[in-house]
Amino acid sequence: MKFNVSAKELLRVLKATGAVMQKKCSLPILLDHLFTERDGKFFITGSSQENSLCMPINLTLDSETDFEKFCLQCNDIIGLLGSLPEQPVEIDVDMQALVAKFKYSTGMVSVPVERADEYPAVAKMTTPTTSFEIETKILFPAMKAATSCCTPDDPLRPVFSAVCLDVQDEGVIFVATNGHKLYKYAYQHGLPFLTGEKRVILIHNSLIGTLSAPFAGLETVTVTHDGKHMCIESGDIAFTIRDIEGKYPNYNSVIPSECPYHAILPVSNLIGAARRVSLMASESSNMVRLTKEGMFLNLSAEDNDFSKAANENLVLAEVEDAMNIPDGFNIGCKCAHIIELLGNISTDNVRLELTSNSKPILFKEDADNSVLTELTMPMQLN
Question: For 130, left (φ over 0), alpha (ψ -120 to 50), or beta?
Answer without folding.
Answer: beta
